[in-house]
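ARCHIVE CARD
Drawer: 12
Card no.: 0347
Subject: one protein chain, sequence and derived structure
Cross-reference: see card 0346
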Amino acid sequence: MPTHNPHEPEDRKRQEIDASEGFESSDVRVSGIVVFLVGLSIFAVVTAVLAYGIGKVINARMAKEDGPRSKWSQTVDVRQLGDMPNNPEMQNKLAEMTQTFPTPRVQTDDGNQDVADLHAREDLLLSNYSWAEQSQGKVRIPISLAMELIAQRGLPVATATEQAPLMTGDRKPVVAVPLTSGFARTGYELDQAAAQKAEAGQHK
């Protein structure tokens, strides 16, 4: 049996929106905004208190594990040292400290200079005479002279060994001529050589 709601016409009128004025004519509910702002404020205060408490607990735990304060754990105002790149005195002090500090030392650059120094030491060994075994009278000769001697005398020939017949699908290995000598300068060394060459050209 259908039922009749006496307030149904009023509910329909209340749900219908009057768009004749072209804007919302009812006022904003201030109570909802106030509740939101109060809740947000409470959340911010609680979060700040929790963060502060967690920080205090972590700092206390770290202080307990680190032990009593010493000269190594004190904070230093590095602003008194000045700008190191523009301070030659600080650069000299840093160079002295890095030279007197026991090995292994921390690299003061990205390693390019270390590689360049390594190649310079290798060039000294490869391009000059030096003792290999002084007690036995063995001497290292420059690599250019060694290559000339090998070209004249040839390499020692190893004794021939019997080789088993190749299996089906196998091929005799062929040694290809290398495209390079296996050694190449780094970009840092090439830049340094170009700068030295340009500087030498300017002096001329």
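Annotation on reverse: The beta strands are 130-133, 138-140. The two ends are 116 Å apart (CA to CA).
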